[in-house]
Structure formats: structure tokens, C-alpha cells
Task: inverse folding
């Protein structure tokens, strides 16, 4: 990605005093402590959360909306503005990574309410392939497969796409994903089942 949030100075001393254990690197604060500090108005903590998690958010949005969506950088920054607003309500029921992805889901859904952006997202299908043997034939085949998979994901109904991308691509545990999407676990797993079925059927029909 090319966009970047405004950089901030290192997280403040007051936030450090609220944390017992501190991982190495950056301010030394845990992700949870950074969210707490952010909720207390520490802009430096928001900057460090961005540094730690913006690539995760960008990857999620790229998969959810399509990697050619022209608004990806803006949506990443919008996600972290929502992180700042939501931080005072953080209850530590989910891992910070999952919590931020949940916020990104809502940002992406808001984006899709615009029909123009929806069409731009559905037209996006290109992924950068990686391939084991490196031959031109295998790279081409792998690239085509990934493009078909991306397109089939983009064509899922929004509620199925959210569940599939969160759990299958981003690795958010089912319990956390259900909480973040405000659905029961049984509902989440039914959505995952339906999403897999639709993707499989799309490949079998050759419609993607």
C-alpha cells in the first residue's frame, strides 16, 4: 500500500504505567495496552497500532473488496480512525488483531453501500501469484486459479463473504468471528458452509 497515517511520537509514559508486561520493540506496550491508551486519547498509541496492524487490515480489505479497489489506502486509514473511536469500548473479549479486522469489516460494508464502489469491487479480480516450481506454465495456471478464486469470493453475498474472508483467509477463530459479526456460532458455521459450497459450484460451472 502507498498510504500512511500521520506518524506519531513514541507512546506516552502514562500508558506504560498501566501495563505489567511489555513486549520488545516500539513503545514496549502490548497490543491490548495500546488500545487502552488509544481509548484514553493517546494519539501515539494509535500510531503504533497502525504500524503493527495496517498490513493485516490492508490484506483483509484487499481480499474483501478486491486488490484493485482504488480506495484501499483510504479505507485502511478510515479503519484506524474507527479504531480510535471504538477504543474506549474495547473489552478484551477478542484478540486485538481480530477486533481490528472486525472494525475493518464494518468499514468495508459501509464502502459497499455505494453502488459505484460495489461495481469497482466486483470488477477487481487480480491477485499476485506465488508458485512453487516457477515454470511459466505453472505460474500462469496458478495465477488463473487465484484470479478465479478471488472473483468467486467477490461474488459471494456480503454476509457469506465476511465470514469466509475472516475465518478462511485471515484465520480469525470462529468464536471471535461470530462475536465480531454479531451472530451465533452456528450461524457463522452455516455461512462458512454456504460460502464454500457456492465457491465450489462456481468452479464446477466454470463461471469464474
Result:
Amino acid at each position: 500500500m502507498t498510504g500512511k497515517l500521520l506518524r506519531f511520537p513514541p507512546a506516552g509514559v502514562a500508558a506504560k504505567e498501566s501495563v505489567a508486561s511489555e513486549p520488545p520493540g516500539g513503545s514496549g506496550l502490548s497490543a491490548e495496552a495500546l488500545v487502552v491508551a488509544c481509548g484514553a486519547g493517546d494519539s501515539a498509541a494509535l500510531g503504533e497500532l497502525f504500524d503493527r496492524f495496517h498490513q493485516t487490515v490492508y490484506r483483509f480489505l484487499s481480499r474483501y473488496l478486491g486488490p484493485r479497489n482504488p480506495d484501499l489506502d483510504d479505507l485502511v486509514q478510515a479503519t484506524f480512525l474507527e479504531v480510535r473511536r471504538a477504543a474506549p469500548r474495547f473489552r478484551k473479549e477478542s484478540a486485538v488483531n481480530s477486533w481490528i479486522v472486525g472494525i475493518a469489516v464494518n468499514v468495508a460494508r459501509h464502502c459497499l453501500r455505494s453502488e459505484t464502489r460495489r461495481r469497482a469491487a466486483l470488477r477487481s479480480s487480480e491477485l499476485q501469484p506465488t508458485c512453487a516450481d516457477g515454470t511459466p506454465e505453472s505460474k500462469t495456471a496458478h495465477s488463473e486459479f487465484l484470479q478465479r478464486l478471488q472473483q468467486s469470493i467477490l461474488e459471494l453475498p456480503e454476509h457469506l463473504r465476511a465470514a469466509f474472508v475472516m475465518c478462511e483467509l485471515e484465520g480469525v477463530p470462529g468464536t471471535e468471528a461470530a462475536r465480531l459479526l454479531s451472530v451465533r456460532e452456528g450461524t457463522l458455521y452455516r455461512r462458512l458452509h454456504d460460502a464454500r459450497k457456492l465457491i465450489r459450484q462456481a468452479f464446477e460451472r466454470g463461471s469464474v
Residues 2-24, 120-131 have pLDDT under 50 and may be disordered.
